[in-house]
Amino acid sequence: MGCSASCSGRIVHSDDDKIKDAKIIFVVGGPGSGKGTQCEKVVAKYGYTHLSSGDLLRAEVASGSERGKTLQAIMQKGELVPLDTVLDMIKDAMIAKADVSKGFLIDGYPREVKQGEEFEKKIGAPCLLLYIDAKGETMVKRLMKRGETSGRADDNEETIKKRLDLYYKATEPVIAFYSSRGIVKKIDSELPVDEVFGHVAKAIDGLK
Ligand SMILES: Nc1ncnc2c1ncn2[C@H]1C[C@H](O)[C@@H](COP(=O)(O)OP(=O)(O)O)O1
Ligand SMILES: [Mg+2]
């Protein structure tokens, strides 16, 4: 945010104001369920901005920064990185895109209920949660295949298993949490990509 001590609070607030009324969609699903694939198609059709927490974190790792080194060690083990780190990165990215974006797809976040609560405190409430649902065995198969070319350190059998376990334990409660608010749309991601997208598009068209 680059606000020096001499700034009045106003500058910080105007940054926050930029995203105050933003349309926010959470995209939740297991690793390899097809979140990234669907988000790309939403970007093309609707002009939304796609923010993948994993991609933001991997970009930080690639930058070679000290923070990146710490993150890499955590991600390689298939664990969750500290909440504040991810949230700050998402918020900065949203502010940077606020002027040109029709809305935001928050992909891979929240990973646990607490992350959702913090997001709402610091940024805002989602109007929709797309629950990209595929079977465990489908996700493993897709990730093993993706691992052949992705270069992702966590696309290997051992880490995939840990990520799946963590998904079921920590992330599925997120879906229950938002279901009670009536904003969850469950999308069958076992179908071919374009058919999955048909359902995603219907959910987005139903907004407002
Ligand atoms: N509906 C679908 N049918 C077949 N393959 C799919 C699919 N959706 C995604 N894939 C493939 C593309 C990727 O290689 C892999 C993981 O997809 P992804 O979009 O990277 O998942 P995520 O972002 O949820 O981890 O599966
Ligand atoms: Mg992804």
CATH class: Alpha Beta
Strand content: 5-15%
Write out the CATH superfamily name: P-loop containing nucleotide triphosphate hydrolases
Q: From the helix content, strand content and strand pairing, which structural class follows?
A: alpha/beta
Specify the number of helices: 9
Q: Please identify, by name, the CATH architecture.
A: 3-Layer(aba) Sandwich
Mean pLDDT: 92
What's the β-strand tally?
5
Percent helix range? 55-70%
Ligand names: 2'-deoxyadenosine-5'-diphosphate, magnesium ion
Order of helices and strands: HEHEHHHEHEHHEH
Radius of gyration: 17 Å
Distance between the termini: 31 Å
CATH topology: Rossmann fold
Number of domains: 1
The largest pleated sheet is described as: 5 strands, parallel
GO molecular function: AMP kinase activity; ATP binding; dAMP kinase activity; nucleoside diphosphate kinase activity
Enzyme class: transferase
Organism: Hucho hucho
Protein name: Adenylate kinase isoenzyme 1
Primary descriptors:
alpha/beta, Rossmann fold, 58% helix, disordered N terminus, binds magnesium ion, EC 2.7.4.3, kinase, Adenylate kinase isoenzyme 1, ATP binding
Characterization of the model:
The chain has 208 residues and is of the alpha/beta class. It has a single domain, classed as P-loop containing nucleotide triphosphate hydrolases (Rossmann fold, 3-Layer(aba) Sandwich), CATH 3.40.50.300. The chain is 58% helix and 12% strand. The protein contains nine helices and five strands. The protein has helices at 9-20, 35-46, 53-62, 66-76, 83-97, 113-122, 136-150, 157-179, 193-205; strands at 24-29, 49-52, 104-107, 128-133, 184-188. The chain has a five-stranded parallel β-sheet with strand order 2-3-1-4-5, with helices on both faces. Helix 2 crosses helix 9 and helix 3 crosses helix 4. The chain starts with 8 loop residues before the first helix and ends with a helix. Residues 1-6 have low confidence and may be disordered. The structure holds 2'-deoxyadenosine-5'-diphosphate and magnesium ion (MG). 2'-deoxyadenosine-5'-diphosphate binds at residues 29, 31-37, 142, 145-146, 189, 191-193, 196. Residues 52-81 are annotated as: NMPbind. It is an enzyme of class 2 (transferase).
